[in-house]
């Protein structure tokens, strides 16, 4: 790799993409800067830019994050969150089947999680169908709703799965524990109340 597209703020405070040549001494990879257990296989270290010559601005301010493809990508990220949540719930039910069965409290948790997953899957399919039907349509609100629903489902999974299974698979099953940790890190690309407020604002300001 000899060049990179880097998102940076201009002196005016505007976000844009810049073409940056990578064969410069001022670009330093900081190994071991990723300290989380979650997504530790992603190899995502910090990179320091100091006195680096920057190439031309690639896009107009705000263009990259405002284009339709960016929001399609946001929906794709939500699909991964959904997959992680589904995987954890499926591992949880496998764990219960392999044990002594489930009590009523565990069954209630599984039932609620499956309900959340089904609702999110329906929204995921609806959003994908809307994009396929009209690639030029403005689907920003639909994607924000999808991301919100998926984040809520992931939070429910994080809350309920440990209450269903207890500490054993989280401490004795590496795959289970890794998936749990991965999901908690990745889903935080959703900006919580800030994103919910932005979604609410879109509905409040929408014209009838």
Automatic annotation (TrEMBL):
MF terms (GO), sorted A to Z = oxidoreductase activity, acting on the CH-CH group of donors
Q: Signal sequence: where?
A: none
Keywords linked to the UniProt accession:
Flavoprotein
- Tell me which domain of life the UniProt entry assigns to the organism this sequence originates from: Bacteria
Residue ranges of domain Acyl-CoA dehydrogenase/oxidase C-terminal in the record: 68-186
Q: Which InterPro entries match?
A: Acyl-CoA_Oxase/DH_mid-dom_sf (IPR046373), AcylCo_DH-like_C (IPR036250), AcylCo_DH/oxidase_C (IPR009075)
- The protein in question is named Alkylation response protein AidB-like acyl-CoA dehydrogenase
């Amino acid at each position: 790799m000899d060049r990179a597209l880097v998102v940076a703020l201009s002196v005016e405070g505007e976000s844009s993409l810049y073409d940056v040549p990578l064969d410069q001494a001022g670009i330093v990879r900081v190994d071991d800067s990723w300290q989380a257990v979650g997504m530790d296989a992603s190899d995502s270290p910090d990179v320091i830019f100091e006195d680096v010559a920057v190439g031309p601005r690639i896009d107009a301010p705000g263009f990259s994050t405002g284009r339709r493809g960016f929001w399609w990508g946001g929906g794709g990220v939500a699909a991964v969150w959904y997959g992680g949540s589904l995987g954890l719930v499926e591992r949880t039910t496998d764990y219960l089947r392999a044990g002594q069965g489930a009590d009523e409290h565990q069954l209630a948790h599984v039932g609620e999680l499956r309900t959340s997953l089904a609702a999110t899957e329906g929204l995921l399919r609806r959003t994908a169908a809307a994009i396929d039907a009209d690639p030029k349509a403005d689907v920003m609100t639909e994607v924000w709703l999808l991301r919100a629903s998926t984040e809520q489902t992931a939070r429910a999974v994080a809350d309920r799965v440990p209450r269903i299974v207890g500490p054993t698979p989280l401490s004795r099953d590496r795959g289970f524990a890794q998936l749990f940790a991965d999901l908690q890190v990745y889903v935080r690309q959703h900006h919580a109340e800030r994103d919910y407020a932005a979604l609410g604002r879109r509905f409040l300001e929408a014209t009838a």
